[in-house]
Predict the structure of Methylmalonyl-CoA epimerase.
Amino acid sequence: MNKIEHIGIAVKDMEFSCSLYERLLGATCYKKEEVVSEGVNTAFFKTGVNKIELLTATTTDSPIAKFLEKKGEGIHHIAFDVDDIVAEMARLKAEGFVLLNEEPKFGADNKLVCFVHPKGTNGVLVELCQELKS
């Protein structure tokens, strides 16, 4: 794993939260995107080398909707940048970690992604992200 790619924050109201984070970070949202397969809308902010991803549910049965219902708004996951997501997934499986998907999926911000189950990471949902090359 190379670095923290972003921190994902679950929010109920994207418009309100974008305004809040623009004021908080002193930075404007540089990208909004819907990930239909996950039932989520995303908004990205950058401060220096750090990125924040806001996530809100687009369907009542999406993982974000379930998270918000169970835990409320707040940090949802920490994402790590990787060079080779397939190799990293194999390494983590060999180390005994449980992956939430068997194959990488297309995610927001031009990434392939995979999530590691929080039961094996002290309650933290970990996302692996590999930049898709153009």
